[in-house]
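REQUEST FORM: STRUCTURE PREDICTION
Request ID: SP-0412
Submitted by: Lab K.M.
Chain count: 1
Length (residues): 253
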Amino acid sequence: MKRLEGNVTLITGGGKGIGFGLATAFAREGSNLAITGRNLGRLEEAAAKLQKEWGIKVLPIVADGANEEAVKAAVSKTYETFGRIDTLINNAQVSKSGLPLVEHSKEDFDLAIMSGVYAAFFYMRECFKYLKESGGSVINFASGAGLFGKPGQSSYAAAKEGIRGLSRVAATEWGPDGVRVNVVCPLAMTESLREWKEHYPELYAKTIKDIPLGRFADPVEDIGRACVFLASKEASFITGETITLQGGSGLRP
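STATUS: Completed
RESULT:
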């Protein structure tokens, strides 16, 4: 039997990049999926691939995490479709990465906070009663940008550190109800990172130099497998933790 057979996982930003890597890792372990994003075509394409390859059910939902009503509708539709929610993964985030702090406008800063902290808050609040039913878990995504003060990522880092603070409080409040909350700080090779490398080659070179293994983590095999473990019953003793995954280091179940 697969590790997450029959479970239901809701992944924000599940149509591309790390989100699709997560979706692949969870589908491979038997979990049905709800994947959200802002591009219906991309979500439907991802859903078709996952269903064909892994034989699970995937529900694509167009939803902007910064929109409270859209989040409520997405969570309700997920529960109505599957009758349960076992894991929530807050992966999606938008920001003006690479922009120095002094060049940020209020709109730039709001973009990161709304798509990060508010989105995580909305999804967590709406999913809680269903996670309590299933004894489920939340996996929120933060970043080394906040942990280590990466230049050019002030609004992004602020949003991600806000998510870490929110997660710590939720882990404390929700532990007695059997709901676990953990944070993953990934650094993965994705199409977006390849674009970032082209635009900021010096920063890329410095970043890769600081990683002991000299490579970025793989979205499926490194980050996805670690998150599968965190969502599984084998990790029922882990909550309130921040796990950094760079170059394949960190948890390797």
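NOTES: The first strand starts at residue 8 and ends at 12.
Reviewed by: T.R.
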